[in-house]
Amino acid sequence: MKKFDYISKVIMSAVAFLTLTATVALAKYPDRPITMIVAYSAGGGTDIAARTLAPYIEKYIGTSITVINKAGAGGQIGFTELAHSKPDGYTIGFINTPNLLTIPIQRKTRYSLKDLTPIANVIYDPGAFSMLATSKIKTLKDLITYAKKNPGAVTYGTTGIGSDDHLAALQFERENGIVMTHIPFKGNNKVRAALLGGHIMMASMNISQSIDDFKDGKITIFGQMSEKKWPGAPQIPTFKEQGFNIIMGSDRGIGAPAGVDPKIISIISDAVAKAVADPEFQEKAKKQSLPLTYMNAKEFKDHLEKLQKNLQQIWDVTPWAKK
């Protein structure tokens, strides 16, 4: 009996110690810098969003944030590193749809949605097709006419197989009976460079990443793939307005590895919400052409789970890569 009492006291003491340690650690959070992983190359849309937002999260969370780029494999490298980071609240990262969800559907990966904790969505960026302003192709109908006469001649760049840019082009090909040639790149900045350099005919990119070149007269944007026009590009019609029912784009939100203390997630989520609502950030986001669409942690989680089911259903019927 005495031995039992002794063991019970030891266990209770250990539990009390661990509880006290966790409480102290939480009370101090954050007591050192936070790392923010971006799964795409520097200068791309996600990188710009991260570096624009980070100072405002710092303002409300009370510590510095270091943005690092882990580009490659359509985002897989960065998403994997985020999912396998220590779940202590000191590593967070941007998570992008649909790549975050399509990559584990189309191939074996070391991460899945279950390995991540969504914190907040920040941006919804509609897709868009664009060509050099010097091209004779000026509209989606021109594109279809040219592609039908010249199967495979239209080369288009995206950020990778299974990206929203790629899925949108596949849908456009399928619905209009045309064939184009896909050339994947490691990031939007590389797609943009290839387009402006004349190495590809068309870029399939999110509209926020094309709008500045459009305003400078370098490119023609054929349409935006959203239900409604993004206020930052009111002069560019939607695909639907032109008779093409294609809605495709990219959510860019913030996540953490699974297993982070919910109280820490709440602290980060609160800081992100305040950062996105900060008038100074909103003004900078407008100048950076960032289409802000905020969702809290629960809304973002529900949205991702619903989107994952939809993408799985599409893959089961019409896979976008070789199985």
Automatic annotation (TrEMBL):
Taxonomic superkingdom: Bacteria
TM region positions: none
Signal peptide from the UniProt entry: 1-27
Pfam families per record: TctC
UniProt entry keywords in alphabetical sequence: Signal
Family classification: Belongs to the UPF0065 (bug) family.
Protein name stated in the entry: 3-phosphoglycerate dehydrogenase
Organism from which the protein derives: Arcobacter nitrofigilis (strain ATCC 33309 / DSM 7299 / CCUG 15893 / LMG 7604 / NCTC 12251 / CI) (Campylobacter nitrofigilis)
Lineage: Bacteria, Pseudomonadati, Campylobacterota, Epsilonproteobacteria, Campylobacterales
